[in-house]
Amino acid sequence: MNISQHEWQYLRDLPIADLKRRVFGILQNAAATIQERGTDEPRLLEVVPRLADLLSSRPELKDLREALSSLARATGLWNYIDKEDAATIDLLVAESVTVPELDGIVLHREQVVALNDLLAGRNLILSAPTSFGKSLLIDALLASGKYTRVAIVLPTIALLDEFRRRLKRRFGEHFSLIMHPGDKPKEGCATIFLGTQERLISRADLGKLDLTVVDEFYKLDPNRKDDRSITLNAAVSKLLNRSSQFFFLGPNIDDVRISGDGRWKFEFLRTRFSTVAVDTYDLGGVADKETRLFDEIAEDRHWPALVFVSAPDKANRLASQAADLMAISDHSADFAQWLSDNVGPSCPLVQTVRFGFGVHHGRLPRAIASQMVRMFNQNQLPVLFCTSTLIEGVNTAAKTVLIFDKTINREDYDFFTYSNIKGRAGRLGEHHVGQVYLFNAPPDHEPTEVAPTLFGDQDDAPDDYVVHLEEQEVTRKTDTRVATLKMALGLDSDGLRLAASVGLEHALALKQAASEALSENDSLVWTGLPKYPEIKAVVDVICSVRRAGEFGAFSAAQLTYFINDLRRASSMREFLLTYDSKYKGRPSAYDTVFKFLRACEYGLPQHFAVVELFVKQHAPATDYSLFIESISRWFKAEELKNLDEEGIPIQISERFYEGEDKEQLVKKLLFHARGRSHELTEFEQMWILASLE
To answer: Model's pTM, two decimal places?
Structure first.
């Protein structure tokens, strides 16, 4: 099979008689290819989604659906079998791989291969394209009834919430879902622990696990320069030591390197089996790339379209420029008004969203980012400017991906990352053929090998990982290293693990900075809720080791000011509107306040806790715990923070909160949303129902 991208596009405009003749010829050619070369020919696999796309746009081809279903059966793309028009043999195949517990989804051949391995009890590492349907395998395992205690490690809170909603809908009656740090498993109830590595590594109630699932497992490789890699390896190591079986899944991996004692046994399944086809267009030679970008996204044939850029500031800037040039949606004004009322009228997102453009990157508040993706998938925000955060598993229904930049964090991305971004184009059941527009030359193809720290020689592992090793993993060499670290930092095992959350080198620097500060005064010595100078004393120590910019501020003084303002604000809405009224900086950097709020959740609490460890060595009565717990939930009730992670912005839930627990608050919000309460706008009603139902 060797039909060019251009020829597929040319077919769409043929008269019906010529088109039928050509499609019938393609089906004959495909059948001959299967006889000669088998079914793994990549060009052959593309034929099924391309023909499905063609048939959906040309109803005159209806009488060829049966033939397409036969080709889908032969190639293993069983999810393309049309049950209404399929021949009996094709229908039997489709019915045999239909999973009623998963809304009647039909699996394809390679999903069944992987599922058989897993149900046989084998450990499996699966490398497959984005469109493969890897998450469906997790759901199929849960539906099997074989597993009662499962841990699922996910890279982001956004992905946690996506999994939570799907698993609650499908398995809420069979499993207790544990996602938040305060959630507790119910005795005698089947349990799913959903968490990022930072959350799961600190849980003491995991018990014996039947299955551990690690999504986006390539992040285990420290060579990918992810600063959370060490914690991920430590968390996964902890889980595997408690688990009877594991399943790692991710995209576009060519090999997994294992060394050390070889105690981890697994099957590695690498497949390029894709359920969608992709057309690629090279715009690298265009002189004025920004103008061409805006020209392309103005075309509704591309929608919904993702625009990949290198950094949050650039995503903000380009989205604002696009909104200045055109309006592409009639369905986003209510969201824009909500942002104006609850974040601030000066927030650049207000105008961006009003004219139909979304933004998605790591700074955005989670509930707002979740709403952006939801409206994008519904084509209410037809264009979404995004950074690499969106390639980490969150499902989007993009028809087109425009890869505008070639860097992440000022470094050229590699072929692996490029493939993951490109893989966002097209979606089974919605866009059988995706489109990718390249504004720069793609990186050279290089095989991608993943070398997880936990699969390597423990003696060669970094200190930040070694301090998390459990008794059965410790060697004489690692034991000596840990003893040396304890002596250098003056900490016990638990203290070392906490110090590793900020990096042991940084912890040593914090120890020295705290010691110098204590030699001058006792401002670091406090308990309960600190006064402003006491907060500033700790922040000064932290910012002598880490840049204030890492926490969303320009200086230690501004960071202290933000913390105090957040603590004193009666609501999140008040805090953000106050910031909005005072902001005088560049529009593209407006959302650094969101970076500060993220740092309050994770980053600042860990640094405060490590400083406390060292201050306690000087003054044992020191106790920052109440403050640390409070800042991690923005000085608000835990119920409000947890609901924000589940897609309900705190600006909504805080208006209704009267001290009830989360379950009661959810019932109250749903009551008001379903009853069309005047206390909620119509847009807020829809937001609540979409997030909680």
So the answer is: 0.94
